[in-house]
Design goal:
The protein has nine helices and nine strands. It has about 270 residues and is an alpha+beta fold. It folds into two domains: about 1-40, no CATH class; about 50-270, 3-Layer(aba) Sandwich (NADH Oxidase), CATH 3.40.109. The strands form two sheets. It has a seven-stranded antiparallel beta sheet with strand order 1-6-5-4-7-9-8. A hairpin with a 4-residue loop joins β5 and β6. The structure holds flavin mononucleotide (FMN). Flavin mononucleotide binds near residues 183 and 239.
């Protein structure tokens, strides 16, 4: 009965039957993901229902500091490599040189994965990655160990200013390694980029459908990381296996409105 009441409060009478069916199927398959995926069927994709998300997530990116942060070099204009061959050669690469990554390389990956490249007709920013409703849920943090010209520490990328905001000092790679289930590539990479999504940015418009959209948005940004790394002779891999709570604590985010999604260790490539 309590469950039924909870469902009624999420969905109202209209959808209750469908939700109970989805729940039954999830139980039969012993897979809760069936439930949340079937829930996302309930809105077909435009201006979803009100999921009780506060509608005050109007920003398109976070900024921590009013004052300027560390300005990044301009992203490289050319990689000299053809886009088709980059797509064909892309691989997950888990071995990195101990050499530091250059600031220009880091700046290029950040810019070409989540950077601002223009302005929409209605005034908001346009990004390098496509985003459902132009709502741009992806945030990028950087855990720096060895990057030329940058102290070890935790940073947030401010895409509007193409700057890094300092969130913490010291080498946090060991903590990130433990948070990522002790995957060696996370420990040894000179730098890791962590993508989160600020979920209500998308949910405030798309309701239950938003879960699909926000995840796809971060996937598009993630493919950009792979392709830019490949084009610049760097190495990276998408890491989706981690303890969410530990990553949230490391980044200083709440795990309720903002969810960590992917970690990209990055380093110079060793071998092919
Ligand atoms: C969403 C996602 C999560 C992943 N998580 C991990 C991970 O935690 N650790 C890892 O070593 N590789 C991870 N990978 C990389 C995959 O193992 C890799 O893409 C796959 O083996 C195919 O190899 P390829 O990328 O070289 O084509 C992940 C990839 C994706 C797309």
């Amino acid at each position: 009965m309590e469950v039924e009441n909870a469902l009624r409060s999420i969905a109202g009478r209209r959808y209750l039957d469908r939700i109970l069916k989805a729940l039954a199927l999830a139980g039969e398959r012993r897979d809760p993901s069936v439930f949340y995926h079937l829930l996302s069927f309930l809105e077909e994709g435009y201006y979803g229902w009100d999921v009780g998300v506060k509608r005050d997530f109007q920003d398109f990116y976070k900024f921590y500091q009013q004052s300027p942060g560390i300005s990044l070099p301009e992203p490289l204009e050319m990689s000299g490599v053809d886009v088709f061959s980059v797509i064909k050669r892309r691989r997950s690469r888990r071995v990195y040189s101990i050499e530091p990554v250059s600031l220009e390389e880091l700046a290029s990956i950040l810019f070409y994965s989540v950077g601002v490249t223009g302005q929409a007709g209605w005034g908001g920013p346009k990004r390098v990655y496509p985003s459902a409703g132009g709502l741009q849920p992806v945030e990028a943090y950087v855990v720096v160990g060895r990057v030329e010209g940058l102290e070890a520490g935790l940073y947030h990328y401010h895409p509007g200013r193409h700057e890094l905001e300092v969130l913490g000092r010291g080498d946090l790679r060991n903590r990130l390694f433990h948070a990522c289930l002790e995957q060696d590539h996370v420990l040894y990479a000179p730098v890791s980029i962590v993508f989160t999504i600020i979920y209500p940015r998308t949910a405030q418009r798309y309701g239950v459908r938003a879960y699909r959209y926000a995840l796809m948005d971060v996937g598009f940004a993630g493919e950009n990381v792979y392709l830019v790394a490949e084009a610049l002779g760097l190495a990276t891999v998408a890491v989706g296996a981690f303890h969410d709570g530990e990553v949230c604590r490391l980044l200083g985010v709440d795990c309720e409105w903002e969810y960590p999604m992917l970690v990209f260790p990055v380093g110079k490539r060793v071998g092919d």
